[in-house]
């Protein structure tokens, strides 16, 4: 990239960077070799001619866009397969996917959840049967759980799988419209198999929801099998190429061994054998929630790169009347909008890495029959997924707004990035619903703390707070982290006390919970923020990096801490010993941090190492040819391929002529 002819502002910005950008790239990737491998892989993908679009996707019809996405998905699959064979390298398909599809792959759910569920929920025999076929795309699948009537409350799903011991089959039925599966990615017209989550019935008795692997289309003709009604759900805010679909069954029979039986089992005679923990059926969701925290980091870095580079190139208005127009990046308000995006991407990455380690540890434990840490993992993944996805959505939107009118152009790519980022707030567990899951755990932990029990590490601050809730405020990163824990503990206590108050007033527990649920949700958010702050600060101070880079990483981590303290200063004034003077000191510190980060802003987004093909943005490309690219892209509009459009003769001219009469 170094030889590309760049906009002079970007050249100046890069020259003043105080740290080695390559060092940060390697740190993010996990080593110099990992960067080399990643770049070689991406170079290979983006030099495949067939993966490049002749016409910008935006101008294609819904149908053509889908077909083009499937075409590219199959080519990408082949290229990746060859690449993996040749180099023994497992690529990050999600990252290049943004470049290839601009939106998302119609195989997203195949890779993200279908294969993962076979691994997580299938017995070794079932894995041996389906995994090789799924991994090499002999069969293509999705994860069909959500229905028209129920997405959050999965115990309420209506799709039925009734066991017939005579034929040793399950009979699938969707008797009501609300029971139709609705949303699964790839279901519309891509997949031939699904994981169907359905209510198991044996001899008229319900045994809760279970996962079934179901073939829905003929492998040769792709026609829906008899008894299957399947289709696409239509256009959405984003995710246009994900091919989300609907599905219903009428007396559709599948063999007994198509119930994934790693946890619970149905024997030939219809005996139901309970698993170690019925919630293990929800395992794929936990894995994907963890993965979404990592996605939030990537999505935020895409928006930050576009908006920061654009803000370095764009000049508008003056700070001093007699001086030239300034780069908009010099406005401190602009820095306030953008630097939190850079900082958040690093925080999400660090927290993702921490959370995925916990996930893998719990999976190891479960394999040995130990489930003690599962509730903590579920609670932590729920609140982090909820808060990171919502933060990422807000940050991306702020980056879009920070690009003014041009941020509204599709060619900036910010609208598309926003579309797939905010989808994460809803899918894989709606944010409020997940925060309330964590609140259940926090209330239990609070009760345990009151009883003097030892708490799990992520909530042990509740016991510390009970022992001493009057800790002196300290304007240091460690002091701020403690402060966040105080806020979280204070909010958990307040929510718990509110529940007790309503119970004393005669409410039953469930109504008391609902009445206190705004406080419970806020307590859960505060708990999440305290984890984000503690983990990310801890990761940064343990990082081994050169002094220059470490200084910048600390500035970003502190910016995150101070930003959120100021954003939630009301909570700090209520639940910690912070004073008004401390808040004034933090405001000053925040301004210092913005100024310190300013010279490194472009270097920091360069270090996300997002190729132009992945950014796919007129505003964010490495060379900063913003206005040239905006014009080049505009000229690709079909309306610019003719000097007079037919609508002139058909409508405009008659209108004007009518006006003359
Ligand atoms: C290392 C890993 C790294 C990487 C991952 C790689 C890749 C992933 C990246 C990208 C992903 C790819 C594709 C993404 C694109 C699109 C995907 C979109 C797919 C979907 O949206 S699928 C549908 C998702 N649906 C949901 O999430 C539904 C949300 N609802 C629920 O989960 C549940 O209904 C509920 C939890 C809200 C409530 O369930 P319930 O009614 O049965 O439970 P209760 O409220 O009564 O609680 C009972 C009890 O159980 C505990 N519990 C609940 N869930 C779990 C769980 N998952 N694990 C453990 N324990 C759980 C709960 O805490 C309660 O305990 P308590 O002790 O009684 O309090
Ligand atoms: C882009 C996209 C892709 C998706 N892909 C898939 C897929 O591949 N497979 C699949 O199975 N599903 C998929 N989904 C579905 C997704 O998982 C659900 O939409 C999601 O879990 C939310 O459920 P819901 O739509 O029923 O929302 P609802 O639960 O109806 O939420 C509506 C409102 O009700 C509130 N609410 C609901 N329950 C409670 C409660 N207990 N307490 C307080 N408030 C509550 C919510 O907070 C929210 O404000 C996808 C969704 C999207 C948007």
UniProtKB/TrEMBL annotation:
The keyword Transit peptide does not apply. GO terms for molecular function: acyl-CoA oxidase activity; ATP binding; FAD binding; fatty acid binding. GO terms for cellular component: peroxisome. FAD binds at residues 146, 185. Its cofactor is FAD. It comes from the Eukaryota. Belongs to the acyl-CoA oxidase family. This is Acyl-coenzyme A oxidase. It comes from Diatraea saccharalis (sugarcane borer).
């Amino acid at each position: 990239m170094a030889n590309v002819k760049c906009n002079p502002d970007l050249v100046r910005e890069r020259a003043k960077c105080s740290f080695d950008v390559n060092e940060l790239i390697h740190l993010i990737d996990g080593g110099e070799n990992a960067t080399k491998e990643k770049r070689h892989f991406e170079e290979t993908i983006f030099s495949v001619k067939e993966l490049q679009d002749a016409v910008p996707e935006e101008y294609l019809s819904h149908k053509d866009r889908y077909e083009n996405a499937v075409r590219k998905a199959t080519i990408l699959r082949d290229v990746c397969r060859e690449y993996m064979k040749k180099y023994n390298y497992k690529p990050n398909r999600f990252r290049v996917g943004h470049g290839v599809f601009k939106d998302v792959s119609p195989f997203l759910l195949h890779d993200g959840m279908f294969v993962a569920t076979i691994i997580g929920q299938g017995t070794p025999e079932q894995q041996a049967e389906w995994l090789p076929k799924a991994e090499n795309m002999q069969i293509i699948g999705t994860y069909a759980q959500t229905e028209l009537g129920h997405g959050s409350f999965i115990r309420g799903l209506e799709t039925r799988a009734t066991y017939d011991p005579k034929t040793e089959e399950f009979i699938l039925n969707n008797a009501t419209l609300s029971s139709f599966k609705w949303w699964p990615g790839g279901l519309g017209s891509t997949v031939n198999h699904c994981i169907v989550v359905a209510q198991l019935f044996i001899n008229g008795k319900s045994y809760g929801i279970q996962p079934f692997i179901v073939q829905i289309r003929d492998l040769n003709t792709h026609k829906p099998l008899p008894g299957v009604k399947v289709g696409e759900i239509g256009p959405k805010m984003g995710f246009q190429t994900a091919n989300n679909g609907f599905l219903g069954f009428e007396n559709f029979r599948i063999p007994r061994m198509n119930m994934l039986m790693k946890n619970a089992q149905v024997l030939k005679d219809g005996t139901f054998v309970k698993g170690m923990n019925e919630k293990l059926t929800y395992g794929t969701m936990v894995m994907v929630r963890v993965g979404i925290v990592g996605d939030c980091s990537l999505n935020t870095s895409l928006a930050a790169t576009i908006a920061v580079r654009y803000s370095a190139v764009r000049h508008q208005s003056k700070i001093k009347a007699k001086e030239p127009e300034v780069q908009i990046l010099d406005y401190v308000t602009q820095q306030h909008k953008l630097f939190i995006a850079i900082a958040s991407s690093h925080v999400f990455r660090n927290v993702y890495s921490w959370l995925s380690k916990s996930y893998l540890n719990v999976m190891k434990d479960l394999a040995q029959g130990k489930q003690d840490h599962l509730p903590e993992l579920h609670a932590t993944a729920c609140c982090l997924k909820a808060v990171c996805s919502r933060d990422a959505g807000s940050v991306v939107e702020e980056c879009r707004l920070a690009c003014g009118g041009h941020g509204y152009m599709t060619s900036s790519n910010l609208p598309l990035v926003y579309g797939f980022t905010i989808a994460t707030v809803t899918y894989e567990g709606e944010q409020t619903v997940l925060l309330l899951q964590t609140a259940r755990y926090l209330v239990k932990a609070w009760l345990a703390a009151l009883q003097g029990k030892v708490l799990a590490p992520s909530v042990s601050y509740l016991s510390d707070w009970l022992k001493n809730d009057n800790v002196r405020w300290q304007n240091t990163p460690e002091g701020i982290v403690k402060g966040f824990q105080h806020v979280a503990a204070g909010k958990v206590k307040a929510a718990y006390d509110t529940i007790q108050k309503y119970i004393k007033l005669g409410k039953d527990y469930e109504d008391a919970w609902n009445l206190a649920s705004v406080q419970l949700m806020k307590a859960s958010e505060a708990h999440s923020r305290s984890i984000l702050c503690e983990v990310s600060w801890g990761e940064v101070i343990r990082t081994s990096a050169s002094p220059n880079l470490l200084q910048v990483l600390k500035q970003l981590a502190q910016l995150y801490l101070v930003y959120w303290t100021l954003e939630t200063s009301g909570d700090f004034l209520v639940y910690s010993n912070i004073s008004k003077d401390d808040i004034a000191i933090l405001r000053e510190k925040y301004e210092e941090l913005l100024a310190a980060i300013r010279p490194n802003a472009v270097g920091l987004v360069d270090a996300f190492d997002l190729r132009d093909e992945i950014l796919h943005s007129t505003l964010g490309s490495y060379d900063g040819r913003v206005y040239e690219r905006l014009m080049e892209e505009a000229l690709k509009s079909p309306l610019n391929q003719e000097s007079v459009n037919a609508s002139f003769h058909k409508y405009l001219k008659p209108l004007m002529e009518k006006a003359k009469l």
